[in-house]
User: Fold this.
Amino acid sequence: MSEIGKDVISILILEDDEVFARAVALIFEKQNYRVDIAGSGTQALELARHTVYQIIIADIQLPGELDGLETVEKIKNANPDERPIIIMVTGNADLNTPIRAIKIGVDDYVVKPVHLEYFLHTVQRQLRIRSIERQAREYVSRIEEQNKRLSFFFDVGRELTASLNLSEVLRIIVERTVQVLDAERCAILLGDESNEYLYIAAAKGIPAEMQQQVRIKKGALLSGWIFQKGTSLLIDDLAADTRFSQHSEPDLPTHAFIGVPLIFKNKTIGVINVSNKQNKPVFSQEELILLEGIADQSAVAIANARFYRQLQNVYLQIVTLLTSTIEMKDHYTKGHSERVMKYAVSIAQAMGLPYEQVETIRVACELHDLGKVGIHDRVLTKSGKLTEEEWIEMKSHPSKAADILRPLSFLSKEIILIEQHHERFDGTGYPFGFKGEEIPLGARIISVADSFDAMTSNRPYQPVRTTDEALQELERCAGRQFDPDVVQAFTVLIRGNPALVAVS
Assistant:
């Protein structure tokens, strides 16, 4: 039979001997091949313009300007993506002719006279060879795809194990998933503390404001359904799928879709979704398997990062408790860290700092006086002027705080701000004498917030100042003790919102 799957094989016979050509054609037609005959190169080129031939049997000697080899070469050049089986026929055993045939990629070479059945055997043999070649290419392609997949999993696994920061882990997962699946959108939804609702923890291709609004109950919509069932879904067109068209997330036109549960220790902790293939209409079964592999790795990495964050919170609670003991020793400073945090965070937000940097400042403020735990009580609570020796001890508290916190590597950014929040803009501060932009912006912000609260709070060594007096003092010292930009941002903020000033 001539069919491969459902496609009938087309043969072009290029032969000027009409009787011979018809005889050859009859053999193939009996086997259900589709056959066209051309008596010249020009006629063959015209036929090839309208039909794609899988097999060309061509006599080399032809009437007209083009011989068989030249005609075949032109047909191949006109359709470079096609690879027809080429069988050349000649009654002349000239040695130069086979060399020309090899150069243009002829598959077989037949010298007349020849038994007509030989053409059928030759074609069938070449078809078997092509089939074997195709299977070999497919096999090699599968091996290469598997190698690429293993390499991808190795690279992603290496990236994920290199970080215990949950935000970074989620970012890596989303970016690599979109990249490898060539998807328009990807979202990771995690269960909340009750594990009854999903929220978008990270996403690409979804507007930020929409990410913040999404909250999906277990079992509701598509992600909630996957979360509840713990089952993967591969859908070619969600809008046309009657099972789930009503489950799709609102305001997000979705066609091709894959959703996979994130499962850690037999518990579903979230869902990873990808949708809208970039260059193809649908996702394949192999891509579903790939996303399931990504989900397996991701679930472990997310669980580890969450556990690490819980440990961080425990450590923070412990060191914050230490800071509270300092304020308990000195009732004058009660609530100081909280007020400094409120002022500093407000300044950072007013100056347009990114969320991560604002959070670093917030934590640093909570812990900025931790080093005072190592200062003698008589120095901390002294109502009079400190002696030179006592002042040296008091000035050591930023470094003491840094030393206490240094083993907590996840606080590395906060430690820098804590250690330098008493540096001065003109370089006369402590402990390093840094000046200007050598001092991190976060430390410059904390310095302003810390000084403002000290001036507007009851202290044994100075009378309390009004808000206006404290702001005027900040402005007077801008450029010397304080960063002028930070002072300006803070004064504008306070004068525009006086209620921000806490009553101490």
Observations:
- The longest strand covers residues 267-277.
- The domain at 163-302 is CATH 3.30.450.40 (Beta-Lactamase).
